[in-house]
Amino acid sequence: MLKKSLVSIDQCTKDDILRIIEDAKKFERNPNRKLLDEKVVATLFFEPSTRTRLSFETAVNRLGGRVVGFQDASTTSSSKGETLKDTILMVGNYADVIIMRHHLEGAARYASEVTDVPIVNAGDGANQHPSQTLLDLYSIQKTQKTLDNLTITMVGDLKYGRTVHSLIVGMSHFNPTFHFIAPEELKMPEEQKYFCSTRNIEYNEHTIFSEDIINQTDILYMTRVQRERFTDLVEYERVKNIYILHNKMLENSRPNLRVLHPLPRVNEIAYDVDDNPKAYYIEQARNGLFTREAILCDVLGIKVDE
User: What is the mean pLDDT of the chain?
Assistant: First the structure.
């Protein structure tokens, strides 16, 4: 078990990933267990969130724990100038685990270094989103019956998209092939490409979102262009609708192909895709509950029995 903070997916070994996935399967069969009885979980969301916050809070409630925290940093002492360190030290006095989303890259790691209370990173800037990666891996295994030797196509905001950065690391244990589709302004950073190269992971870069690439794909991972990451709104307007998946584009895709998206979507998946059995993003979000139940137990060293 991790029995420690989860700040980055790269701290998870292959065995860690597979164990958490197996525990998520157990929670899907029976999500209501009193494993966090008398535990207090703090949710500190310095950035807006819907699915991540609600699924973590639901996970705590279904496990019999209690939730404290905030979803609007403007209502906290940080708006008065309190440092992140002081906030974490203060909340650590009250909680058994802290779930934190922050706009600054590295904030979760810093928090884990100033407190002995486990920190679960719910997203730090454009850096990491490990719980999303673990639920993505659970979703991929569930739909493909394996994690090995899959072709994964990532589309959209690959520069600022912390979910795709983390997914590359998580999938690196399983011999994937990647296609990266993005405009020049949002292409995959050199750091992630270097990571792939040093591990002999095949990847191909494209600027055109073509059906030919879709038809080679097992997992089509769509992302939105994130307005909040842009300092130049003119640049955002130029690229925000550059790739849109329509239902007809899936006509000749593999039977096992599934469309994933970390959500929220804006325009990048047309609504005519929703009724296609290959659309999996709503079920993907549902899987977040079971995966986050498994993560909470793992960082607290709680064994999950059948």
Answer: 91
> Is there a contact between 284 and 135 (Cβ–Cβ < 8 Å)?
yes
The one-character DSSP state at 35 is T
Provide the b/e sequence for 12-26 (b: ≥16 CB within 10 Å). beeebbbbbbebbbb
Which of the residues are catalytic? 51-52, 80, 101, 129
Asked if residue 114 lies in contact with residue 97, where contact means CB atoms within 8 angstroms, the answer is: no
The per-residue pLDDT for 28 is 97
For residues 128 and 9, is the Cβ–Cβ distance under 8 A?
Answer: yes
Q: 258: which 2 tokens? A: 């599934």
Closest CA to 261 of 248, 271, 251, 249: 271
- pTM: predicted TM-score of the whole model, two decimal places: 0.91
Q: Which pair of tokens denotes residue 303?
A: 């064994």
Going by C-alpha positions, the residue among 306, 304, 300 that lies closest to residue 2 is 300
pLDDT tens digits, 108-148 = 999 999 999 999 999 887 678 899 999 999 999 999 999 99
**Region for 69 from its dihedrals, namely left if φ exceeds 0, alpha if ψ lies in -120 to 50, beta otherwise:** left
Strand 119-124 and strand 97-102: the pairing is parallel
**DSSP secondary structure code for residue 269 in this structure:** B
What would the two tokens of residue 67 be? 């939730």
Contacts of 241 (CB under 8 A, 6+ apart): 225, 267, 268
